[in-house]
């Protein structure tokens, strides 16, 4: 599941041989941007004429069959939507044909503190999608959404419990480790991982509590079993994790 894919990164993904050999890449055409709050402001001649600058993408292993793939637009000021993929599944093991689907979604909810009201409505719309009982005659056994939920406000970490949403957070399925005791504003990777933070590790010179946060989440509904995946260990001489701490030069600044 990818968020904020641009045209350049899309080309790199599609041209990669490993990707071509092993994955089906979903909905590679950038969606049009006309998802305004005031629908009356959209002129008919402009609808669909301008692609989004950034969009979402999913790479599904080729040994998994996809029965449907589509996008659902949000009321948004930031070109946001949810990408939906249907995976046919069997209720029980056996040689029978699939009789239901697992609904997978990825999204990038509205950004910044001012986008909170949008995010709450967008998450409620996703919840309704995940909880659909029947889709074109297929039973929906469960649903999962992963992506950048932009939970910039502390209160948002409880939004999935809102009665209008009512989803489970994968992070909460297992007791989180106790963060190490640190000096005020002192941070390290262990502390951030124990908090479940997915963003803000490299915000040097800024207050950690403002920039370290668990923005990215997996939320689900239905009989889905979750289990923890521990930090990859490089026991075979191959990389288990890459990119963390790397820098590149953009203009005059290292990022």
Outline the structure in words.
Its cofactor is Mg(2+); Mn(2+). With 255 residues, this protein is an alpha+beta fold. Helices cover 16% and strands 24% of the residues. It has helices at residues 7-15, 17-22, 116-130, 189-194, 208-211, and strands at 2-5, 23-25, 55-57, 59-61, 68-73, 81-89, 100-108, 134-135, 138-148, 168-169, 216-221, 249-250, 253-254. The strands form four sheets. Strands 5, 6, 7, 8, 9, 10 and 11 form a seven-stranded mixed beta sheet that branches. The chain has a two-stranded antiparallel ribbon with strand order 1-3. It has a two-stranded antiparallel sheet with strand order 2-4. 20% of the residues are buried.
Q: Nearest-angstrom radius of gyration? A: 20 Å
Q: How large is the count of helical segments?
A: 5
Envelope shape: globular
Compute the number of strand runs: 13
User: Which second-level CATH architecture applies?
Assistant: 4-Layer Sandwich
Listing every helix as H and every strand as E from the N terminus to the C terminus, the arrangement reads EHHEEEEEEHEEEHHEEE
Low-confidence stretches: 35-49
Number of domains as seen in the coordinates: 1
């Amino acid at each position: 599941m990818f968020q904020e894919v641009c045209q350049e990164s899309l080309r790199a993904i599609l041209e990669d041989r490993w990707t071509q050999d092993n994955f089906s890449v979903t909905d590679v055409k950038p969606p049009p941007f006309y998802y305004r709050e005031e629908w009356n402001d959209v002129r008919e001649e402009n609808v669909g004429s301008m692609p989004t600058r950034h969009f979402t993408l999913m790479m599904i292993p080729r040994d998994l069959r996809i029965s449907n793939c589509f996008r659902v637009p949000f009321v948004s000021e930031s070109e946001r939507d949810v990408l939906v993929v249907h995976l046919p599944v069997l209720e029980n093991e056996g040689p029978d044909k699939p009789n239901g689907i697992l609904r997978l979604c990825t999204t990038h909810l509205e950004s910044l503190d001012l986008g909170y009201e949008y995010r709450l409505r967008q998450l409620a719309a996703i919840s309704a999608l995940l909880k659909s009982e029947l889709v074109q005659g297929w039973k929906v056994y469960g649903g999962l959404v992963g992506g950048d939920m932009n939970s910039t406000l502390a209160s948002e970490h409880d939004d999935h419990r809102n009665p209008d949403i009512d989803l489970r957070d994968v992070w909460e399925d297992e007791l989180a480790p106790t963060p190490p005791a640190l000096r005020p504003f002192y941070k390290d990777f262990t502390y951030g991982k124990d908090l479940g933070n997915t963003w803000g590790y490299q915000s040097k010179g800024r207050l950690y509590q403002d920039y370290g946060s668990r923005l990215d989440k997996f939320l689900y509904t239905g009989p889905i079993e979750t289990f923890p995946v521990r930090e990859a260990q490089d026991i075979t001489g191959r990389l288990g994790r890459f990119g963390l701490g790397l820098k590149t030069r953009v203009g005059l600044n290292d990022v």
